[in-house]
Amino acid sequence: MSRIGKLPVAIPAGVTTTLTESGLTVKGPKGELSMVFVPEVSVTQEDDGFKVTPRDMTKRARSMWGLQRALVANLVQGVTTGYEKNLELVGVGYRASMQGNSVKLALGLSHDVVYDPPAGVTISSTKPTEIKIEGADKQRVGQVAAEIRRFRPPEPYKGKGIKYAGEYIRRKEGKKK
Questions:
Q1: What whole-number percentage of the chain has pLDDT above 70?
Q2: Is the keyword RNA-binding assigned to this protein (predicted)?
Q3: Domain 3-80, CATH among 3.30.70.270, 1.10.287.1770, 3.30.1330.50, 3.90.930.12
C-alpha cells in the first residue's frame, strides 16, 4: 500500500478544477496547469479533494499510484503558491544582470551568456550574485535552474561556479609540493 497514494489532495479556495477520465486541469491565481493520467490509476473527486486509487494491484499500478498523487498535489500547489529556485554565483567577476525578461551572465567566458526563460517561468536578479527562478510548473522551474547551472557548474577546488542556494560543494585538496 502506498503511503503517499492513500492521502487525499485538498483543493484550496480559489482553485477551479476540471476532471476528465484521462486528465486533470487546474486553474488558480498563478496560472493554469494540466496533466494526463496513466491508465493504471483512477482519480476521483470527493468532498475533501482528489482521491487517487490503482485500478488493479499490479506492480506498475502500485508504482504509479503515489507518483500520480504527487503530480496532482504539485499541480494544486503550483497554481496556488508556485515554486521557486535560487541560484548563487560564486567567483571573481561572476555576475548576473537582467536584460528585459532574459538574464545576462558574466561567467569568465570570452562572451556573456544570455538566457531567455521559457513561457511560464520568470527570472529575477536582485543582487549581481543571485538569481531567482519562479513559476507554477515545478518541472519547468527545476529544468530552467539546471540549464542555467550547466553554463558553469561548481568546481571542487575553489568552489567557483553557479550553485543552488544552500548546496554544499565537496571540496578537494589541491596539488602538494
A1: 99
A2: yes
A3: 3.90.930.12
